[in-house]
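tool=predict chain=A
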Amino acid sequence: MHRDELTRYLDDLLGAPRIKDYCPNGLQVEGRADVRKLVCGVTASLALIDAAIARGADGLLVHHGYFWRGEDPRVLATRRKRLARLLGHDLNLYAYHLPLDLHPELGNNAQLAKLMGWRAVGRFGDQDIGVIGELEAPAPLMQVARSIGARLGREPLVVGEAAGEIRHVAWCTGAAQGMFEAAIAAGAELFVSGEVSEPTVHLARESGVPYIAAGHHATERYGVHALGAHLQAQLGIHCEFVDIDNPA
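tool=predict ok
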């Protein structure tokens, strides 16, 4: 498939042009014209680039790409090494950030719910990125935490205590701890995201709504994996998901 045709397909599928973000979405680094094989992963790290080279891929498809708003735009140090490797091997880099969080079927939030068996009933937050839903059956907080840990393969951090069993859970993968208050206002009895910050701890303790930090990387593996599987099924592009371990 031609590189630009794939760009248009992905942009349309994920609704990228309509979504406000703080990085460019789509084709971030142009490589060879013909795309037959992609390596998929969470972040376009040097390790993932090297994995793509080793596998003879034509490019990478990631959730976390480059060129974030507010960062130093100079091509130095780590950025230089990554771009040199991509350009030197004529690799394409496709990156979708918020569009991949938001997609109702392939997105990180949708895929986390599928993994956990949570049923979405509403949305909240800017661009409706946060999701609120119901557990399959009410359960104690620590039982929910153990289930998250078992399915993500990473022990979560649990902050705060629940007044009773959890029925309504809100979630937003990655670094969405700033949405905690909005989740509480939406009626959540528990909020699950990837990261935790110092103010998050106090809010969980004082609001009566516990918070679970399940890992930024751990919660965001599933969207790009699902997207790669979709491309392989629909377009015949060979997609291999490579999980570069990250404890954060």
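Residues 3-97 form a domain with the Udp-n-acetylmuramoylalanyl-d-glutamate--2,6- Diaminopimelate Ligase; Chain: A, domain 1 fold (CATH 3.40.1390.30). DSSP finds ten helices and eleven strands in the chain.
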